[in-house]
């Protein structure tokens, strides 16, 4: 469970966790791009249809949904709920 005091060490740990989550997403996105480019290009070279072959895009499509979910889990909580939403809610319940 997170501690909610504003000491420099706590803020540093929260910042480190946030940067680690963002870094994980960026690595996931880079791997997604590299692997899917390889799959699409190799499928277009092997097939007679070129880039019109839809089979090469299925992996990118379904993996793209996973990448989107990863991005939402990393960026959406602070974007949708605000930066200090969790802390404000805890304070609200503690004041009741």
Structure, briefly:
The protein has one domain. The chain is built from three helices and no strands.
What does this structure look like?
The protein has 96 residues and is mainly α. It has one domain (8-95). The protein has 3 helices and no strands. Helix 1 packs antiparallel against helix 2 (55-81). The chain is elongated, with a radius of gyration of 20 Å. It starts with 7 loop residues before the first helix and ends with a helix.
Sum up the structure in keywords.
96 residues; mainly alpha
- Share in β-strands: under 5%
Mean pLDDT: 83
Record field, number of beta strands: 0
Distance between the termini: 21 Å
For the record, the count of structural domains works out to: 1
> How many DSSP H or I helices?
3
The share of residues in helices is over 70%
Low-confidence stretches: none
Order of secondary-structure elements: HHH
What general outline do the C-alpha atoms trace?
A: elongated
Largest beta-sheet characterization:
none
Q: Which class do the helix and strand fractions yield? A: mainly alpha
Radius of gyration over alpha carbons? 20 Å
Give me the secondary-structure topology.
Blueprint: H1 8-46, H2 55-81, H3 85-95
Helix pairs in contact: 1-2
């Amino acid at each position: 469970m997170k501690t909610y005091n504003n000491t420099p060490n706590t803020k540093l740990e929260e910042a480190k966790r946030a940067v680690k989550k963002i870094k994980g997403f960026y690595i996931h996105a880079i791997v997604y791009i590299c692997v899917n480019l390889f799959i699409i290009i190799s499928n277009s070279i092997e097939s007679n249809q070129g880039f019109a072959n839809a089979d090469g895009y299925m992996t990118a499509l379904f993996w793209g949904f996973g990448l989107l979910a990863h991005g939402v889990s990393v960026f959406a909580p602070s974007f949708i709920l605000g930066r200090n939403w969790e802390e404000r809610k805890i304070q609200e319940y503690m004041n009741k």
